[in-house]
Design a protein that fits this description.
The protein has 123 residues and is α+β, with helices and mostly antiparallel strands. The chain is built from 3 helices and 4 strands.
């Protein structure tokens, strides 16, 4: 019986996949390689020196006033990132909200997030 560990990638969202420090966010905001737009969301993308993609979110109270709505957006972004992280290159991605999402339902929000990730995969 073999005691080898399988190399199956896990679809977990680890701490190493998050942008945590203000400096990490500043690097992406100051010199993004790409800016990807949707009607309500925008993503800044920059290649990183790590061996995996990382994601961050800058969702302000001004654009999304309730904590429930902000947390919903963050959960949706994290979930889609978790699913797609195995096929993304080593990029730092920061999501922001361009305008209020009051008229946006969960299905449309998920569609916009997926569209941004598809654009990142293409290049």
């Amino acid at each position: 019986m073999s005691n080898t560990v399988s190399a199956i990638p896990t679809a977990r969202f680890t701490k190493e996949q998050r942008l945590l420090t203000p400096n990490a966010f500043r690097e992406v905001f100051d010199a993004p390689e790409r800016k990807l737009h949707q009607s309500h969301l925008m993503a800044f993308v920059r290649t990183n020196t790590h061996d995996q993609p990382r994601v961050g979110m800058a969702i302000t109270k001004r654009k999304v006033p309730t904590a429930v709505a902000r947390n919903l957006i963050k959960r949706q972004i994290r979930e889609q990132f978790r699913i797609k992280s195995s096929i993304l290159e080593n990029k730092d991605i920061v999501f922001i909200v361009k305008k209020s999402i009051k008229e946006l339902d969960n299905k449309e929000l998920k569609k916009q997030i997926n569209n941004i990730f598809k654009k990142i995969e293409i290049k």
